[in-house]
């Protein structure tokens, strides 16, 4: 069982284990050793103030392990995945904690094909990290990261625009929230010249304001700005821009489930939806499943995490998959969730349809859904805690024919997530609160 890697790399408070300087250095050495003789590694980061020293320590470790390192500087996670594959790098590494607050940071790893590393590979690297730490506990804060290759961003923008030839905003006003994160370095250039008025917000990172009251973690912010500006649509990214959420012209938030529905119908109409199948996750709403079924499209559910969505897509041959949170994967176009690509492809669907986002999502009727996050001090198996198991069982019996109960630990934070859907909102909230209270009592902080 992995101890350092979660569902999306290593993530923690910057400076504390496992993101202390010694462990970051060991990660670099271990990765270099795993990659073989004279590997080349591409490094990117988001806008957190801890990014530079982590990049320096990681670079020191990679170099000590025999690797050469090139930096793309502040750039999105999917850009690193794309560039690593396009230029024959042995691996791509992103220093980012995605949607987490600025105090956190993380390390995400991609293989030479641009795909996230499988669990077995991460486990093998973990074992080498622990061996390195056993040999030396010297604190290594690192020197200076490699010089930034400014051309990387421009190449990534060209790749994105090539995916949507002829795209036009049709003179419409679009609001874009960059979350004071990695999208700040790419989105202004990407959306310029598309034939509309683009209002860029939250694109002034200071190292500590990433995701702060903005971005995909707070989609109501861009939704309110759409109404205020009289815009046709809003787009909002998370800190490393591997996911995107939207707001329609009425200021209603449009999540990843709705994007999956629109993209699936568009691909199906063009004969490009392989096996008429979409891969979603356990968190996707039952309403999406029903809407897809009305269009003759089957929906499979994977574990939460875009790497697990992708695994099921590759196993089944599905052309489209994603998460309610906004990670969307288009087979053949991307190897990971890419918020900027998703935004362009959704804009292209609207342009070709000649209809608004509200019009195209009007028939998506979602079940009431509540998600309660409980901070926990440990991640004991929930079924081993009698009071929690009893509360879950009661909810499952009560909602057997009219809802869903999904309880899981976050793979990136010290949280237990209680998600319940039901036709009856009072019943849904009562059981969600009961389960959350049981978890809080037993292992809550």
UniProtKB/TrEMBL annotation:
PTM text: Activated by phosphorylation.
This enzyme's EC code(s): 5.4.2.10
Active site residues per record: 98
Membership in a protein family: Belongs to the phosphohexose mutase family.
Upper classification of the organism: Bacteria, Pseudomonadati, Acidobacteriota, Terriglobia, Terriglobales
Residues covered by the Alpha-D-phosphohexomutase C-terminal domain: 372-438
Protein name: Phosphoglucosamine mutase
Gene from which this protein is expressed: glmM
Keywords, in A-Z order: Isomerase, Magnesium, Metal-binding, Phosphoprotein
């Amino acid at each position: 069982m992995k101890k350092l890697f979660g569902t999306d790399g290593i993530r923690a408070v910057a400076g504390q284990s496992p993101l202390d300087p010694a462990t970051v250095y060991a990660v670099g050495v271990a990765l270099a050793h795993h990659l073989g003789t004279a590997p080349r590694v591409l490094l990117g980061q988001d806008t957190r103030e801890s990014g530079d020293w982590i990049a320096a320590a990681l670079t020191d470790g990679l170099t000590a392990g025999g690797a050469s390192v090139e930096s793309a500087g502040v750039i999105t996670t999917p850009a690193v995945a794309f560039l690593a594959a396009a230029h024959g790098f042995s691996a791509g590494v992103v220093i980012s904690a995605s949607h987490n607050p600025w105090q956190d940071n993380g390390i995400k790893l991609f293989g030479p094909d641009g795909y996230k590393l499988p669990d077995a590979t991460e486990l093998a690297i973990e074992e080498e990290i622990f061996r390195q730490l056993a040999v030396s506990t010297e604190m290594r804060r690192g020197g200076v990261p490699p010089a930034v290759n400014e051309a990387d961003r421009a190449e990534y923008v060209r790749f994105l625009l090539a995916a949507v030839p002829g795209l036009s905003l049709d003179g419409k006003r679009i609001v874009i929230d960059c979350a004071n994160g990695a999208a700040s370095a790419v989105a202004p250039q990407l959306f310029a010249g598309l034939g509309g008025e683009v209002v860029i917000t939250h694109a002034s990172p200071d190292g500590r304001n990433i995701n702060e009251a903005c971005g995909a973690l707070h989609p109501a912010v861009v939704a309110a700005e759409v109404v205020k500006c009289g815009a046709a649509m809003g787009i909002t990214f998370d800190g490393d821009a591997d996911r995107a959420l939207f707001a329609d012209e009425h200021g209603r938030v449009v999540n990843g489930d709705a994007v999956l529905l629109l993209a699936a119908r568009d691909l199906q109409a063009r004969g490009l939806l392989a096996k008429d199948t979409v891969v979603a996750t356990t968190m996707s709403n039952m309403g999406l499943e029903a809407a897809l079924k009305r269009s003759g499209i089957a929906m499979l559910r994977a574990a939460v995490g875009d790497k697990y969505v992708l695994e099921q897509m590759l196993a089944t041959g599905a052309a489209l998959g994603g998460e309610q949170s906004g990670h969307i994967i288009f087979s053949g176009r991307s190897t990971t969730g890419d918020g900027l690509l998703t935004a362009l492809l959704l804009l292209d669907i609207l342009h070709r349809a000649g209809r608004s986002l509200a019009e195209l999502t009007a028939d998506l009727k979602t079940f009431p859904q509540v998600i309660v996050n409980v901070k926990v001090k440990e991640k004991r198996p929930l079924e081993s805690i009698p009071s929690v198991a009893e509360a879950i069982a009661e909810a499952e019996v009560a909602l057997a024919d009219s809802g869903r109960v999904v309880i899981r630990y976050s793979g990136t934070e010290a949280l237990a997530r209680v998600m319940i859907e039901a036709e009856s909102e009072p019943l849904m909230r009562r059981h969600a609160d009961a389960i959350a209270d049981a978890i809080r009592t037993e292992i809550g902080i």
